[in-house]
Structures are given as structure tokens and as C-alpha cells.
Amino acid sequence: MTHPMKFFLRVCLLAACTGLVGCQKSETTSAGTAGAKPLTIGVAFETLQTEYWVAGFEAIKADLKKRGHTMLEAVSDGDTNRQFDQVKNFITRKVDGIILVPKDAKTCLPIIKAANAANVPIVLFNRPADKSDAKSVAVVADNFALTRETVAYLVSEAKKAGRKHKAAILIGDLGDINAIGRRDGFDAAIKGSESVVEVVARIPTEWNQEKAQAGLVNALQASPDINFIFTSSDFLLPSIVSALKTAGKYHQIGMPGHVILGGFDGDATAYQLLKDGYLDATGVQDVYFEAAQCIQAVIDLRAGRTVPDLIRDPGFVIHQANLQQKAAQMWGAQMSKK
User: Fold this and answer.
1) Contact predicate 31/70, CB 8 Å
2) How is 86-140 classified by DSSP, letter by letter?
3) Which pTM value belongs to this model?
4) Is 329 a member of any domain?
5) Which of the 8 DSSP states describes residue 330?
6) 64-97 pLDDT, tens per residue?
7) Domain assignment of residue 188, yes or no
8) Does 160 share its domain with 131?
């Protein structure tokens, strides 16, 4: 498991390098993509507060450097107005394209329209915008399908036990369309298997560790027989582990009292819990695929090529049976090595 202080220091170090107080140019290589003019791409992230966003930021930066393009960097710390100013700064500096992680699907629309007005291609990383006349491309995980596949695996594990399971789901911030897709994917996987899994607790978290832990502690007190938990983000796994330990329910797979546990993202904590035998499965977002697709979409749009409005990352489910085979593709496994 990633130690909280180590992760905090890593985020602080990255923040110092990426200009949390504004926009700055990152190091680039001198050799551009063969036969192509090197581009300047503005990359604006709403936050770097989870390992997923750090991994995505680093993946985009590494891919741009490999291709020989220049990257302008900005992180807005959850402040939509600040992000708007950062993107306007990109436009003033005449970037060739923008890659954006917005706070949510609605507040990014004025940002997208500003890029449209300046004829600057804009691609959203992992969070799509609401439907509107604003023109953008989004590269996102297939949250619904990947969650459904992950939870279906967990249900199959519950069936093997030959008894009914009581389930809890930790739901993300429903202002985030990704959280809605994951909630709906969970429900779709459970539907038709009510004789195997009964959902007794739906815990709102708003992507907050303290709220997640308090909610699960309360759920376990109200229903001590909960033995099936799914979290809409691996980011919340430390809170789940803490709550399970407090309730005396933290046991490895195959041991009496084990709580079937699954998640979504594929971070370093999830990888460690898989290795240690506590996590049954998680749905992994392919950060490297998403980063590469964002960059390629900017390049293609700049060249006048047709790009679909939505590019889906199918991701994959990693579990005990395929851990050795899939670990090399799991971004959290790569982060854990750092």
C-alpha cells in the first residue's frame, strides 16, 4: 500500500515541477515526430489529488516528450475560474491544442467555447463535457461496462461460496459523470443476481476519504453481516481497509470471514492489496491508452482529420487469477515501483 506521506511528498514534488501557481513550459526533446512540426500543447488538470490524476499527468507529459512536442502545464486545484484563466493563458500563448481535465461536465463548457472561438482543438482527459454546441473530444474509460464486468466477477465469486451475500457500494460524487456510470454499472451487474447478492447499503462519498470511512463504519454497525463491498474508486480503499479492521472483518481471500472486495481505477493501493490477497478484483483504467489517444486526437484535429467526439477506453478487470499476466499493464503497478 502506498504510504500517505510518500504519496503526499510525490504530489508536492510534481506540483513544484508543474506550476500549481500558473502555467509554465516543460522540458522537450529537440527531435520532433518524424516529418512533423513539433507542437505546443497546453495541459490543464483540475487536480492532482489522487494517484490516478498524477499517473495521467505523467503519462501525457512523457508521451509528448517522446513525440518531441512542447507541453505547457497548469493545475487549478479545483478552482474552475482559475482553470478558465489558465486556458485563456494557453490561448494567448498560441498553443496548438489543449488537453483538459475539468472539474465537472458543466463548468467546462465556457472553457471549451473559448478554445472553439480561438480555433484551438481541445480534448478532455477522462471527464467528458455535457452535450452542448461546444465542440470537444473526450477520451474516457467505459465506466459503465468496465464496472459491470468487474462486479460480475465479484458476483461469480459470491456464487462459489454457496450463500447469500450482503453488499455495500461506495458511490462517488454524482456531479461527476464517471461516478454515475460506475453506479449504474454496479446496478446492472447485480440485477438478476439478487438471490446471491442483496444490496443493503449505498454510501455516498463525494470522493472524500473521511466521508467514505464514516459511511462504511455506520453501514457495518447497522448491518454487521455485510460481506461484499464495491468502491467506485480505489482511491477510497484505505478508508475501507480502516473500517473493516475496526469491525474485525479484514481477512485475506480464502480465510473465514473474508469480505469480497472490488474497486475501480487500478491504483498502487489496489495493486498492493491484490498482491497481499485482500482485494478480489478491480477495473483498471488504461491511463497510457487514454494519454496517447488525447495527444493523437489533438494532432489529428490540428491536421483537419475527423475525430470521434468520444473515444472509449475499454480498460480491463484484474483479479487474482490474471494478476501476473496483467500487472505490467496496470498503471498502479508501475506507480508502485516509483
Assistant:
1) no
2) HHHHHHHTT-SEEEEE-SSTTTTHHHHHHHHHTT--EEEES-PPPSSS---EEEE
3) 0.82
4) no
5) -
6) 999 999 999 999 999 999 999 999 999 999 999 9
7) yes
8) no
